[in-house]
Every structure is written in C-alpha cells, then in structure tokens.
Write a structure and sequence with these properties.
Layout: E1 10-16, H1 19-25, E2 34-37, E3 41-47, E4 59-64, E5 71-72, E6 83-88, E7 93-98, E8 105-108, E9 123-127, E10 134-137, E11 145-151, H2 155-159, H3 163-179, E12 213-221, E13 225-232, E14 238-244, H4 249-264
Parallel strand pairs: 4-5
Antiparallel strand pairs: 1-3, 1-11, 2-3, 4-6, 6-7, 7-9, 8-10, 10-11, 12-13, 13-14
Length: 268
C-alpha cells in the first residue's frame, strides 16, 4: 500500500481488526498518528513522522494504557507499557518487544514466530512484510486487542544510509527528542495492571532451544552444501546458515565433523 499522505515517513500502520482495536485507533489520545483507510476505519501510522516519548534513537513507538506511551490502548489487562516497536540500526529491521506485566503480547500470521516462554528476557521478535503481520494484546487468550500490520516501506529503504550515516541519524534523532516537549514524561496516578483471571497455565518442561531464522540470500555453494545470509528472528541480528546436502549418512557425519572443527579454529 502507498504511504499515507499525512505521514510521509511512515514505515507501517496498525489496522484494527476487532472492536477493541477500533476503540484504540479512534481514541483522541492517538489523533497525532491516526488517519482514515477506506472501508477499514482509522489506522495508526508508525515511523519517523512522530518522535517516541521513550526519548531514544531506536524506539519507534510504545503502546499501552500509561500516560507516557505513544499509542494509548485501554483495558484493565493492558499494561502501562504493553509493547514497543524498536529499530535495529545495524541490520535495519524492526523488532516488536513484549513489555507487558503478564506477557500478554503475541504475534500471528501465516509465517508467525510467536513469543516463547523459554526465550528472553527480553521477549522480542522481528516483524516484517511477510512475517508476524498480526499483533494481539491483552486478555486471557492474548487477543483482547487485534491489529493487522500494514507495511508501507522497509526500514532499510527508509534509512537509505550507510553505517556511518546511521550514527549521525541516531544522534540527530536524540537531539531532536531532547528538545521536543512531546517526549517529556508525565507523572500520573495509574492503576495497576489487572492480571487476566483465566490466564492459561503451562508446565515448564525444559526443551532444546531451536534457532529461528529467515534465509535472505545465497552466499555460495560447494560440494557439501550451500551457505546463506540469514536473519535471526529473535535477536534481529544477521547470521550465516549452511545447509548441507544429505547423500550418505556416513559422509554427512564426516563432513559435519570437519566443518565444526574448521569453524572452531576461526577467530574474528
């Protein structure tokens, strides 16, 4: 979708998909980020048009029912700061952080990599055009408020800068935040977050951690496999992944042993 005219620096928008979300996007406290989408109601733009009250160079927006959040979302099971969207300037990806009291933020979608209790803190995950494009907040089932993520442009394209320029952008963002009255934190009397009474319980059985990643592009190939540049979906960092061809199990074991021994000798 095209970038909304009122927010030319928007990266993506939160589009409401249930009544509680429509209430949030229509709240007067969010009017500085709100705009209309035909047949879909009011959406919330997130990007570089509005500075976050977090007052740092990497936070795009915070959501919750506190008085100092960027996007107000009501509800007794919504935390004062429920979640935040933050940039990783080294890899140019956007991360969603679950900052809720009862861990009631979750992601969904066709290619979802949901928050897992065995990971973190912090609980965080990459969001992208084809990844984790449905976000739900609050409630016993973590679905009280439901948003669809509508992308306008990727962070890398929006920044369109090299590594040296990124540090300059970060500093200018901080300088502007320091002098912008909108980022000043307010003191208020806020009620405590109400824990959902029907929160599902889990038996915490230790299980092996699985690396969750997305292959970006092929780096090279050889007689035993292919190497890819990949993105770690839980940290937002780049990594290398080697996919090995499995022809003969005995050959595979030998190749894997040789590969691990070679990698163990590398220092960088």
């Amino acid at each position: 979708m095209m970038v909304p005219k009122a927010f030319p620096k928007a990266l993506f928008s939160l589009v409401p998909t249930n009544p509680k979300a429509h209430t949030a996007t229509s709240d007067a406290r969010n009017e500085d980020r709100a705009y209309k989408i035909p047949d879909q109601g009011t959406a919330i733009a997130i990007g570089f048009d509005n500075l976050s009250r977090a007052g740092n160079a990497y936070t795009l927006a915070t959501l919750g029912r506190g008085h100092d959040v960027d996007i107000y979302v009501g509800g007794s099971t919504i935390s004062k700061i429920q979640c935040s969207f933050e940039m990783n300037l080294d890899t140019s990806v956007v991360m969603l952080y679950d900052r809720s009291t009862a861990q009631t933020t979750q992601v969904h979608g066709e290619n979802a990599t949901p928050f897992e209790h065995t990971r973190g803190p912090p609980r965080r995950v990459v969001i992208d055009e084809d990844l984790n494009d449905v976000i739900t907040l609050g409630g016993a089932a973590r679905d009280l408020v439901q948003f669809q993520v509508l992308w306008h442009r990727r962070l890398a394209k929006a920044l369109a800068i090299d590594t040296e320029k990124k540090s300059v952008v970060s500093q200018s963002y901080l300088d502007e935040a320091a002098h912008n009255p909108r980022v000043a934190r307010t003191q208020s009397q806020e009620s405590e977050t109400e824990l959902p009474s029907r929160m599902e319980t889990r038996t915490h059985i230790p299980k092996p951690m699985q690396m969750r990643y997305k292959n970006l592009h092929l780096l090279g190939s050889g007689s035993f496999g292919e190497g890819f540049k990949a993105l770690d979906l839980d940290s937002g960092r780049f990594m290398a992944v080697k996919r090995m061809y499995l022809r003969n199990p005995r050959d595979y074991d030998h190749a894997r042993k040789r590969e691990v021994e070679t990698l163990a000798r590398i220092r960088h």
